[in-house]
Amino acid sequence: MICLDNNLLSDYLAGEAFAKEFLEPYADEVWCVSAVVQYEAMMGACYGHISGTISDVEAATSEFEKVAVTERTVREATALQEELSDHGIQLEARDALIAGTALEVGAALATEDGGLHDAGSTGLVDVLEYERP
């Protein structure tokens, strides 16, 4: 299972070839998005940052597993932040929740976010480093 961060999801929804190429090796895996990422994508549609409407985002992600933010997610995110602080890394709250979601469901987190790449370098969270050309 892979969990998509908003940067990758937005590129995928926009039909960017490089996002589709990045995801090709994971075509047979379950793709999931945190409720936080789903919200970010919907707001991106609402404010015109990504093409399409909120309904388009819902339709395009209909086959993705949606992962709600739960008390367990919060605990995972908090424990991760605590451990990352020992490495001098501090994530933004929403990024910690997204990483906590991936930890909760045992998924790799596919992201372009540098802070999450740093978190992945510690081995505390499995990060697939997505990079835009």
Give the uncertain stretches in residue-range form. Answer: none
The DSSP helix count reads 7
**Topology, number of strands:** 5
Mean pLDDT: 95
Assembly state of the chains shown: single chain
How would you sum up this structure, described in words?
By secondary structure, this protein is of the alpha/beta class. It has helices at 6-13, 17-23, 35-46, 54-60, 71-85, 93-105, 114-121, and strands at 2-4, 31-34, 65-67, 108-111, 127-129. The chain has a 5-stranded parallel beta sheet. It starts with a strand and ends with a strand.
Features:
133 residues; alpha/beta; 5-stranded parallel β-sheet; 7 helices; globular
Brief overview, please?
This protein has 133 residues and is α/β, with parallel strands linked by helices.
What topology does this entry show?
Blueprint: E1 2-4, H1 6-13, H2 17-23, E2 31-34, H3 35-46, H4 54-60, E3 65-67, H5 71-85, H6 93-105, E4 108-111, H7 114-121, E5 127-129
Parallel strand pairs: 1-2, 1-4, 2-3, 4-5
